[in-house]
Amino acid sequence: MKNLNNSTHPSYRPDIDGLRAIAVLSVVIYHAFPTGALKGGFIGVDIFFVISGFLISLILLGDLNKNRFSFVVFYSRRILRIFPALLTVLIICFLAGYLSLFPDEYKQIGKHAAGGAGFIANLMLWSEVGYFDNASELKPLLHLWSLGVEEQFYIVWPPLMLVIWKSNLRFLKLALIIGVTSFLFSVYCTYTNPVQAFYSPLSRLWELLAGGVLAYLVVHNQYIVRSHHNLQSFTGITLIVVALFVIQKTSKFPGLLALLPVLGAFLLISAGPNGWVNRKILSNKILVSIGLISYPLYLWHWPLLSFLRIGDADGTYRDVPMLHRSIAVILAVFLAWITYRFIERPIRFGGNKQIWLPTLGVLGIASCLFGVTIFFSDGFPGRIQLNPPTASILFSEYPHPLRNEACENQYPELKSSWSCLLSKPQKANVAIIGDSHAHQYYYSLAKKLPDSTVLNFSYPGCLPFSNNTACNEKLDETIKFIKNNKSIDTIILTGYFSFLGAGFKYENIEGFRVANDLNEENKRAFSESAIKLLSTLTSLNKSVIIFIDIPDLVFKPRSCVVFQNKIMAFLRGGIKSKSINDCGILAQEFYNRNKSHDNTLSEILSKYPKIEIFNPRPLFCNGIMCTAYENNHFMYWNSDHLTIEGTDMVIDALLKDNNTQLGRMN
């Protein structure tokens, strides 16, 4: 094996470790206290990208200048730098997850661990984003996305630099062309596809290349770079501070706003160790010490906060006391120091590299394979014995499929819809249209109407009608579709009507999905949208059935489950807040909360006497309680969506109701 020391090492700059400290502290504080003043703390990751691009490019340029660049040496050093702390965190997450996570949660850990060990976590998380995707705070390995971006850069950048160098091409010009192209792509995607902008290595490449360009300037002309070092350092820190307090979760980011932290980091590094801010603030011993443990601190902080949140009864920071989050941060700092002192340093700077390198490689592959095994075994469900046994449905993936080939082939214009399902490869005569609360009935309806062809298409937040004027285009498309497809004679409309009328009061988090209060402006927009659709349908002589929406339960049905496993019961005992016989909410509480929404819908429907109304609420509410559990089965999958058993019960009742067209047909 080649000598790993036979590589260029830039002279140590304590101010860069100080900048690392600012980056990691910003991220940790934001993640632990997201409602605090530091609303842009997540931009610490962008600072890390610039630092990484700078240091890696500095090493590569030094080696290329001395004609001693080696891929083996470069990637061996990356393994020694990245793997020790990463594998430590992954192994602990495997163990903690085995003891405390439900099968669906542990399955997710396996998937993300495999992606993290394989450095594709960003691509994996990008593909997961969707309506029923878990909240980001409930993914203990979510933060590995940034490691994926960096490592993908490390795979592409060294060979590209080597080609540029050996071909005598103009490095700076090419780097700037690639960087500007990546930046423009990032700006474009931030507005057209924000998820892609966030996770794609192509939209983040320019941030790492900013560091690469700076490295080139430092190597070839330090005077130009540091000619105004005090001004550069003050401007750099100002841009970062502005970014920390101005940028927030709802901002269009990365895009143009990412220029603030990227340029800030660029200017601070370019100022050199003699810039006033670099010398007086960033080189402070406390910041430097934190900077030295910044990598393991970044790795540790998020799993600790995420496991804390998962273990909470409702899974939101509102219910995790600030004291507990503070303790998690302190523990993360302690574990980071332990990892750095006793694992990372001894492996990187001591010991036999010929032993450590293959060992780390084998452990990395093993972690990846173990993650894959967890995923394909559905999270080892045998670890947990549940009471009642039928509760297993609550710990599985959402039971209602979203799309099938028959629908997309028969109705290609519906390919862009959120759900597109057709029970037979022919034109439909029954359609159920709305949001996810409509889509959930498709499977049961198709199963129980074997002589009909049932179609479902849905747009959450928009259909069947809503107060959101941005949904007018979807409504017009729906009306056009119905006019063009005369074979559809029966149309069922339903949705999360209270939400469609007023939006959420809190956040779109299970157990807290409660509709906002209905004001006059929302009521008017909601009514106009409804009248537009219903007037069209009645004029076309369609048979229209309105499903009144089911009660939304302000808790998680899985909080009614008893764990026979004593370790699981101890670790997740806090989640059990209800007994199986009390697995519901007071009916009066729901009806009072929904009164204004129900009255508005009733006012609208009173204008259309030919429209049939089906109310499934009595199936779940007995006058005292609205329950999630009936006849030894969970009817609710989460706080406002039903299981297959739940939708079967509703559709059975519909088909027995002689007051509806479908009921009379059966």
Describe the structure.
The protein is α/β, with parallel strands linked by helices. The protein folds into two domains: about 15-130 and about 135-380, no CATH class; about 400-550 and about 595-620 and about 645-665, Rossmann fold. It has helices at about 15-30, 45-65, 70-100, 105-115, 120-130, 145-165, 170-190, 195-200, 200-220, 220-225, 230-245, 260-270, 275-280, 285-290, 295-310, 320-350, 355-375, 405-410, 435-440, 440-450, 470-485, 495-500, 520-540, 565-570, 585-605, 615-620, 645-655, 660-665, and strands spanning about 385, 420, 430-435, 455-460, 490-495, 545, 560-565, 585, 610-615, 625, 630, 635. The protein has a six-stranded mixed β-sheet with strand order 2-4-3-5-6-9, with helices on both faces. Strands 1-7 form a two-stranded antiparallel ribbon. Strands 8-10 form a two-stranded antiparallel ribbon. The longest helix is centred in the first third of the chain and has 30 residues, at about 70-100. The chain is elongated and about 85 Å long.
Quick rundown:
The protein is an alpha/beta fold and 666 residues long.
If you compute it from the alpha carbons, what radius of gyration comes out, rounded to the nearest whole angstrom?
28 Å
Strand content: 5-15%
Mean of pLDDT: 90
Shape: elongated
Detail the poorly predicted runs. Answer: 313-317
Number of strands: 12
Describe the largest sheet.
6 strands, mixed
Kindly state the percentage of residues in helix.
Answer: 55-70%
The DSSP helix count reads 28
**Class based on secondary structure composition and strand pairing:** alpha/beta
How many structural units, i.e. domains? 2
